[in-house]
C-alpha cells in the first residue's frame, strides 16, 4: 500500500514540475478535473440514487404508476443540486483562480440551486394537483388557479433570491426597493389580480364547475367546462372545438349554466304543433263514440259528457235554443289526449311541470305547445324521446280531423274526413 502511495506521489510531483512553467495550464487542468468530478457525481447520483429510489417505490404498496412518475421527477430535479454544489465548493480549491472568478462561480451555482429548488416546487405542486383531481369533489372546487398563483409567488421569490445570489447581496435589500416599483408591478400583474378575484368569486358562489355545460354566445362558447385555471376557462364545444375564456368574463358577462337542468333530473321540451285553424270543429255523437276506443280519453270524455249535459240541461230549462249548447271539439279532445299521452309516457318526468296549452294564433296557424321534461338529461336520449313524442302526435292528428299548418301545402285547403272518423260502411251482399 505504501509503494502505491509513493508511486502516486511521485507522479503528482512530476506533473507539478512539468506544469510549473505554465501556471495557466495547471489551473485549466484543475478546472477540467473539477468539471469531470461534477459530471461523474451527476452520473452517479442519477443512476444510483434514482434507481434505488425507483426500486424502493416499486416495493412499497403505496401510490400508482403516475404517483411514482411524479416522485421520480421531483427527485430527478433535486439530483441536479449535487453537482452544482460540487462546482461551488470545488471552485475554491482551484489554484491561481482569481478571487472574482471564484465568487462569480459560487454566485452562479447559488442562483442555479435556487432555480432548481423552484422547479422542484413546481413539480411538487403539479403532483398535488394530480392527486387532488382524484377526489370525488375535485370538479366542484378546482384548485388549479390557486396553485398557479402559488407558482407565481414562488417565481417572484426565486427571481429575488437568484438575483441576490448573483450580486452577492441580501435579498432583503432587493425587497426594500420593491416599494418604488409597486405601481409597475400592479400594471404588470393587473390581469393576474383581476383573474384571482374572479376565481375567488366563481369558487365562493359555486358558479362554474368542471364538467358543467355553459352557454356564452358572446364568446362562442357552448359546451362542457374542461379546465378552470387562474387566467382562463377552457370549454369543449359540441363541435369538439375548444374555446378559451378569460376568467373575469364569467363575472362581467352573462352566461347560462345548464347544471341545474342536469341536477333536476329533467330536460325541458318546449315545442309547438302549428295547427290549421280551419280544421278545428265540433264532434258529433258518432265521432265521440269512436274516440271512446282510446283508453287515454275515457276519463276525459266521461267527465266532459257529464259537464256538458248539466250545462245544456240548464239552458233548456231557460228556454234557450240548441245553438247555445256546448259541444265537444276535436281540438279540446286532442289536447286532452296529448296530456294523458305524456302523463303515461315512460320517457317523461312526471314530477316536473307538464302542460299542453294553446298560444296566440298567428299567420302560421294555432300553436299547441307541449311543455314537459324528459327523465333523461343526456343529449341523444333527450332527442330520441322528443322525436318519439312528436312522431306519434303528428301521425295521430288526422284521427281527430286536425291538420298541421304549412305554408307550402299540396292540398286544396279543404279538410277531408279521415278514415278513423268516417262511418263504417256495411259490407255489400252479393
Using only CA atoms, what is the Rg?
Answer: 41 Å
Counted beta strands = 8
Secondary-structure content class: alpha+beta
| Topology pattern, helix = H, strand = E | HHHHHHHHHEEEEHEHEHHHEEH
Q: Provide the β-strand percentage band.
A: 5-15%
Note the total helix count.
Answer: 15
Shape: rod-shaped
The main sheet orders its strands as: 4-3-2-1-5
Q: Which spans have pLDDT < 50 for at least 5 consecutive residues?
A: none
Instruction: Give the overall pLDDT as a whole number.
Output: 78
Biggest β-sheet description: 5 strands, antiparallel
Helix fraction bin:
40-55%
Descriptive notes:
The structure is a single chain. The chain is an alpha+beta fold and 430 residues long. The protein is built from 15 helices and eight strands. Strands 4-3-2-1-5 form a five-stranded antiparallel sheet, with no helix packed on it. A hairpin with a 3-residue loop joins strand 2 and strand 3 (232-237). Helix 2 (23-59) runs antiparallel to helix 4 and helix 3 (65-79) runs antiparallel to helix 5 (99-133). The chain is rod-shaped. The model has no long low-confidence stretch (mean pLDDT 78).
